[in-house]
């Protein structure tokens, strides 16, 4: 474990390459310390010029993308028109900082969804939400336009999402009747495979920087992979990411799912099959349920004793309710 003082010194040496010799690091401070990534903010000073930067670092694992893949994916998305932070340097080797790392520009704005929602409480709130929702659809369409055929990113993978989440639940050797019904329905009603695109993997409110009513940047690319556009579309629209907003604002708490889909169709030049999207909504909700159960498992097994993880685990029943409602919607 590298302490803050040593990290400051090592980071200055790393930044000498992209910013120039004599770069110093000031005001290094930890922002978050999650299970897989730690985020730091700091100022890089070169020749009297100060630049606000972000460092993300953490040990490699079998779930999250490597830092070099994150950097590649963001560059590919940026080239297609998506708003992402500019990355200065990324390295999967632990040699320089003790863990793989990524350094990017700091983007001003808000990520806490409750604060974003309060911004829209005024008279023009509906118009502001609609504008932000269109920008989210535009950004997602740009991500899905990214060129993944010219040069594949380092470690970019593709996996059957239904199989993956079935396996993750089975590993815990614990399930519910609703989960099993959901998996059975998904297996029996799988839609035709659509075109393969770059998938963000966690495109949702909370992973977006919003400046007023404007989308400033898409963050948190550690789940990036190759797959179907429906995965990102559905994940943005599950109830968990409305953060308490009513069902009428089903797309990220900003507007209706239909409005979001129409905006995406216009931005992408594609047609979204509504029945296929519903299938992916069921899978996305089931995915969140499995994640909730996994977080509870981390607490219950003593892997990471945490009230927060235990509380997330109690939300399994919420996802069961959502799955039942989604399946009820398509009954003959």
Structure notes:
The chain folds into two domains: 4-105, Phosphorylase Kinase, domain 1; 113-329, Aminoglycoside 3'-phosphotransferase, Chain: A, domain 2. The strands form three sheets. A five-stranded antiparallel β-sheet has the order 1-2-3-5-4, with helices on both faces. A two-stranded antiparallel ribbon has the order 6-9. The mean pLDDT is 93. The radius of gyration is 21 Å and the shape is globular. It has helices spanning 4-19, 67-79, 113-119, 125-145, 161-172, 177-188, 229-236, 257-268, 274-300, 307-313, 316-329; strands at 24-33, 38-46, 49-57, 87-91, 101-105, 196-199, 208-211, 214-218, 225-228. The protein is an alpha+beta fold. It is 45% helix and 17% strand. The chain has eleven helices and nine strands.
Key words describing this protein structure:
332 residues; alpha+beta; Phosphorylase Kinase, domain 1; Aminoglycoside 3'-phosphotransferase, Chain: A, domain 2; 2 domains; five-stranded antiparallel β-sheet; two-stranded antiparallel sheet; globular
